[in-house]
Amino acid sequence: MDAMQAYKRWLQLAVEDADVRAELESLDPADEKAVTERFGASLAFGTGGLRGLLGAGSNRMNIYVIRRATQGLANHLKASCERPAVAIAHDSRIKSDLFSREAARVLAANGVTVWLYPRLEPTPALSFAVRYHGCQAGICVTASHNPAAYNGYKAYGADGGQFTDDDANATLACIEKLDYFDDVTLCDYDEAVADGRIRLIPDATLSAYLSAIRALSVADCRKDLRVVYSPLNGAGHECVTHMFALQGVTDVTIVPEQEYPDGTFPTCPYPNPEMPEAMALGLALAKEKSADLLIATDPDCDRVGAAAKDASGAYTLLTGNEVGLLLLDFICNSKQQSGTMSKNPVVVTTIVSSDMTDAIAKAYGAECRRTLTGFKYIGEQIGLLEDAGEVERFLFGFEESCGYLSGPHCRDKDAVNACMLLCEMASYYKTRGESLYTAMQALYARYGYFCNGVESFAFPGLEGKSKMAAFMASLRKNPPKKLAGYAVEEVLDYQHGMTANVTLPPANVLEFRLSGGCKAIARPSGTEPKLKIYVFGQAAKKEDADAQCAALLKAFAALIDA
Predict the structure, then answer these.
(1) Does the pTM exceed 0.85?
(2) What does the pLDDT look like over 414-423, one tens digit per residue?
(3) Which end of the chain is more exposed for a tag (fewer CB within 10 A), N or C?
């Protein structure tokens, strides 16, 4: 049916959610663009599950889209296993608790056992619960670090990692057969809890998760370590502060305006610890408290940002790459010093992360594997090691967008894990009279200035999606001969798949290798309507590497605007 027919059907049948109802009734049928934006397509289900604006329609996040997707998941699981079980978690976003309960109602009605966290918890705790309770799938209701107007539905496989292409495609095939209203089976939530079809995940599971992280400790924390922490109004408060207590980190100040869950994220438009705006309150408080370390976790507590004092005493935000490189060096050094480094250790990062990763890994005798963007691919490498009986070889995994993992306890990035390690690392350098900032300068001095930049170009709406696809097609057909004055020496098209240190599946990614050791990568986001451009500079001086990155970003902006 076309967009207008779908709108009229929703207007007739979507009666349960008052917010959806109000939006439907306020929508002007003569506003063709508004109707098409909401009903001209179905919100895409992929390896990242669902993500989109909250609102009415098949192209928005609402209970009807959640129910249909979950019915498709239930149908897929019932066709592939005898007694399926699914773990569910949610973060602090608007309607996250409602969406998690609606998903549970659909699964329970279809004979799928549900393990449901009774309150908001981090995404990595969901990944852990999938494995801990022997589930065949998992759902985390979150839009990660997107603005407040968004919500999402991350889907996980039995290994605790986000859905593979095969699982996503099989689930999508089931979803596409379903009507939003007629083909969904529901049960009463309270009745399902009472009869055990929906089981509330006990605190013992969360304790086991935190214990698994503590087992990954590589150093003690100083008693005088001073930390400022922000959960960014998300799900991190409970687990991160509990981890501080387990470590003996007691001098902790939580940013008061960002302490408690609030899906409107009132202090920043974009609750992303990569963004200076999200970290501004924390930076001010760190200065006031003369903190050794500022850390902030995103709304679903899988990413973490950090800041430390620079040489002048001012606080400087570390990039996601810099935190990953510092942690890699710290973990390797600590394990070598304690004699606990595994034989043939493996470091896993992505194609868009810093090239310094290879240099540090080589210095410690570790193998460095690179994957496509998305932590599920890093988790996949952990799984391959586990299947080979060599999971102890996994040393550390990270991606430049502030995601880190140092153990096999889950298969997704884990900000609770990273917060523990950041405290240990800050303690180590404090003992040496250094901060994380000065430690990073020492790494640059040792390995050279590997600088990185990233910029996102928005392509909103259905029209934007087509424009972004057209731009990528144009880059493929007519790649530039030069970028910012640097000759394009090689173009790698990941759409055909790649085989380097690991075999990569096809992906909509273009890499331009340039003269002078520079490079640039163009990649449409898999979860948001934007094109991400990553640039890489390398030079003996920081200002030269930074200038390379700035020039490459400017050159790509000109290409997009052309």
Answers:
(1) yes
(2) 999 999 999 9
(3) C
